[in-house]
Design a protein that fits this description.
The two termini are 31 Å apart. This protein has one domain: 3-Layer(aba) Sandwich (Rossmann fold). The protein has a 9-stranded mixed sheet, sandwiched between helices. By secondary structure, it is an alpha/beta fold. A hairpin with a 2-residue loop joins strand 2 and strand 3. The chain has 16 helices and 9 strands.
Length: 356
């Protein structure tokens, strides 16, 4: 049966995190910039803030909201319920290195119009960690479909960003009769790989993604091949976890990360990973995605895209038109890969326009 989530991190664990941050063994550096990875001064700023972050305020807020654990055949899934019951249902699926908090600034903007379901992907945050293989996008989609059934929601719209894009797409392919609409924050690149009939713009997009992977994709290569090697550092070192995530929050947008995303939100996201010890299981998702590719096929449910100009790669509209029954294609005026955290008003307006 569905049960209430009760978060209760012991005071000693919060104190231990502060001690570990204070005792950080800092590496040397030859320059204070982002060219070689995480900027040392930015990491110090984040760690100073994180060490003073009020976890108990967030814990109290979570416990006061409608957060539940939904049992499935593959473990319990954490779900944040918000909005108005009886309104059109909308499932919001997060990515990496974020969490259900990806939508923390979006939910209040949509609560009056939708019955919102915001899960933690299995292996992330307060959801159970899968301890077997094959837990990639199609498997996760099946689990979330079961979650929606357990919640008594038969028909719903779905939005995804980052890995949530692939999960949302797989859910729509598997259960088109249940999905009222598919809204994606990224274009799934895998659909274009190997295609021999790409237009010039589409080919430039694929080539740009390949060049980006060569210069910026080391994190993905490691998580897709040897996530357990990385797991010890991310689970044992707050500085290691913060550095690993901060560099992505900075790199996948435009300008200074702390001007785009509230530093409290970054600290909250780090805290969820830290206290739930899910950095390792979240990284394993990449490994599982490599060995278990997504299911192919054309999406037959009406589809919308909301693309951010400063995302990693921005796909051309022509590709969306050939692969999806496209009804809406929004190119936002600003924002990066974490647009839900950076520009929540823009995303909320686009979701309302498509699903409303």
């Amino acid at each position: 049966m569905v049960e209430k989530l009760r978060v209760d991190v012991p005071t000693r664990e919060v104190a231990e995190l502060g001690r570990r941050i204070r005792d950080t063994r800092w590496p040397d550096s030859v320059a204070d910039d982002w060219q070689r990875g995480t900027r040392p001064s930015a990491l110090r700023r984040l760690l100073d803030h994180w060490s003073a972050y009020d976890w108990f305020a967030l814990q109290q807020r979570i416990n006061g909201q409608d957060h539940v654990l939904v049992p499935t055949a593959d473990g319990r899934v954490h779900v944040w319920r918000a909005g108005r019951r009886g309104a059109p249902a909308l499932l919001l699926i997060h990515g990496w290195p974020d969490s259900f908090l990806r939508y923390d600034r979006v939910v209040p903007l949509l609560a009056a119009d939708f019955d919102l379901v915001v899960p933690s992907v299995p292996g992330y945050g307060f959801s159970d960690r899968p301890m077997h293989g094959g837990t990639a996008s199609a498997w996760t989609a099946a689990v979330l479909s079961e979650v929606m059934e357990k919640l008594g929601i038969e028909r719903y719209g779905v939005h995804g960003g980052d890995i949530g894009t692939g999960i949302a797409e797989q859910l729509t392919l598997a259960h088109p009769e249940r999905i009222t609409g598919l809204h994606l924050g990224d274009m799934p690149l895998w659909r274009a790989l190997g295609a021999d009939d790409l237009t010039g713009a589409e080919r430039s997009w694929v080539e740009g993604a390949a060049a980006w992977s060569e210069s910026e994709g080391a994190y993905s290569t490691l998580q897709r091949t040897k996530p357990q090697t990385l797991a010890a550092g991310l689970t044992d070192s707050p500085a290691g976890l913060a550095s690993w995530q901060l560099e992505k929050f900075q790199a996948w947008g435009e300008g200074d990360v702390f001007e785009r995303i509230p530093i409290d939100l970054i600290a909250a996201n780090l805290s969820v990973y830290w206290y739930t010890r899910t950095a390792a299981s979240a990284a394993r998702y990449y490994y599982e995605s490599r060995i278990t590719p997504p299911t192919g096929g054309r999406v037959e449910v009406r589809t919308a895209f909301g693309l951010w100009p400063h995302d990693i790669q921005v796909a051309p509209r022509s590709f969306a038109e050939r692969m999806y029954p496209l009804e809406r294609f929004t190119e936002f005026p600003r924002g990066g890969h974490f647009g839900a955290m950076e520009e929540p008003e823009l995303l909320a307006a686009d979701l309302r326009a498509f699903f409303g």
